[in-house]
């Protein structure tokens, strides 16, 4: 089973950018579907973005055009570039991977101030 560790969260002003990283160990990500999810205080965890092993991507409507998911198979890592951040993007962001999102990281906090 793959182990996932997120990093790159922090505090940013509205309109700013952050790049989240998800480092994997235990197996190669190259054949895995990977995704990002987030959970805001008092809300359920929600889907943000997905990257299939063939390079295809898919985004939640709320982040489309602002966020970009990418992967570096050589580094065994997945990234989430977040631009034009809004206060509504404040949440703990989680990296997940595998069939039925079997593996999860511990999360990284993103706070966007207005």
Radius of gyration: 13 Å
Taken in chain order, the helices and strands follow as EEEEEEEEEEE
User: What's the total helix number?
Assistant: 0
Distance between the termini: 39 Å
Structural class: mainly beta
The helicity comes to under 10%
Q: Describe the oligomeric state of these chains in a short phrase.
A: single chain
Low-confidence stretches: none
Taken from the alpha-carbon principal axes, the silhouette is: globular
Instruction: State mean pLDDT (0 to 100 scale).
Output: 96
Strand content: over 45%
- Extended strand count: 11
**Major sheet details:** 7 strands, mixed
How would you describe this structure in keywords?
seven-stranded mixed β-sheet, mainly beta, four-stranded antiparallel β-sheet, globular, 114 residues
What do you see in this structure?
It is a single chain. This protein is mostly beta strands. 0% of the residues lie in helices and 52% in strands. The protein has strands spanning 3-7, 10-13, 18-25, 34-39, 46-51, 57-59, 67-72, 77-82, 91-97, 103-104, 108-113. The strands form two sheets. Strands 2, 4, 5, 6, 9, 10 and 11 form a seven-stranded mixed β-sheet that branches. Strands 1-3-8-7 form a four-stranded antiparallel β-sheet, with no helix packed on it. Strand 9 and strand 10 (103-104) form a beta hairpin. It is globular and about 40 Å long. The model has no long low-confidence stretch (mean pLDDT 96).
């Amino acid at each position: 089973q793959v182990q996932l560790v997120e990093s790159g969260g922090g505090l940013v002003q509205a309109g700013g950018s952050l790049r989240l990283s998800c480092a994997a160990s235990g197996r190669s990500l190259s054949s895995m579907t990977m995704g990002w999810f987030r959970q805001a205080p008092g809300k359920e965890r929600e889907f943000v973005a997905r990257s299939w092993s063939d390079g295809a991507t898919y985004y939640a409507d709320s982040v489309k055009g602002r966020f970009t998911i990418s992967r570096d198979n050589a580094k065994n890592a997945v990234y989430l570039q977040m631009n034009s951040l809004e206060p509504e993007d404040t949440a703990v962001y989680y990296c997940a991977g595998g069939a039925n999102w079997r593996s999860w990281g511990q999360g990284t906090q993103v706070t966007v101030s207005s």
